Amino acid sequence: QEREHLKDEL
Amino acid sequence: MNVFRLAGDMTHLLSIIILLLKIRATKSCTGISLKTQELYVIVFLTRYLDLFTKYISFYNTTMKLVFLGTSISIVWYMRYHKVVKQTYNKDQDTFRHYFLAIPCFLLALLIHHEFTVIEVLWTFSIYLEAVAILPQLVLLQRSRNIDNLTGNYVFLLGAYRALYLVNWVYRYFTENHLVRWIPWLSGLVQTTLYADFFYYYIKSWKNNEKLQLPA
């Protein structure tokens, strides 16, 4: 969930 | 998406467009570090590995393709374009950028969120981006006169990550206080590296004089 959170940024 | 992150992405995009315009319009890459540009290509390649496997949004995919395409074409221009490559300050752009990449990779092997290829390479790209500007800053100190486009390019590049820091503060307070140390600390280091450039850039802008970095 932490990694998923990061995913939407460039 | 929040306004700080959108402003950050647009500032980042603008910096790359300004650099491409400088190279295409003046057919010159004087004062630009090829090492930094190559590091940025590595940053984007290792960060956008899941470009085709994970669809986030049209915006996200488009921007990733634009960043990859423009950064690769800048390196192509500086390496292979018959006119532009003559203007590259080869003898001044001597920073050993592998000395930057290797410790970043080792650090990513040690400190990451989860030990998978995608995650470690993503973390490597975050660490590498923080220090990728160093060859460019060293080159600016060596090259006596910095042209306006190059100065604006570096300024916008530094400003984009500063806006991302604001975005992370905003997201911390609006998205159940999720802590994200790796990008936060890397982004802080990245922005701090621009500190003295920002000082001289704003000073030259205020006094309306040529941008000059002390040797």
What characteristics describe this protein?
heterodimer; A: 10 residues; mainly alpha; 60% helix; B: 215 residues; 9 helices
Sketch the topology of chain A as an H/E string, one letter per element: H
**Largest interface (CB < 8 Å):** A-B, 8 and 22 residues
Q: Unreliable stretches of chain B, pLDDT < 50, 5 or more residues? A: none
Overall pLDDT level of chain B: 96
End-to-end separation of chain A in angstroms reads 17 Å
- Based on Cα principal axes, name the global outline of chain A: elongated
Total count of strands of chain B: 0
Please give the count of helices of chain B: 9
Q: What is the CA-CA span between the terminal residues of chain B?
A: 40 Å
Give a description of the structure.
Chain B: It holds the Pfam family ER_lumen_recept. Chain B: One of its GO terms (biological process) is protein transport. The complex is a heterodimer of chains A (10) and B (215). Chain A is an all-alpha fold and 10 residues long. Helix content of chain A is 60%, strand content 0%. Chain A has one helix spanning 2-7. Chain B has one domain (3-206). Chain B contains nine helices and no strands.
Topology:
The complex is a heterodimer of chains A (10) and B (215).
Chain A: H1 2-7
Chain B: H1 3-26, H2 34-47, H3 58-80, H4 98-110, H5 117-131, H6 134-142, H7 148-174, H8 181-193, H9 195-206
Helix pairs in contact in B: 1-3, 1-7, 2-3, 2-5, 4-5, 5-8, 7-8
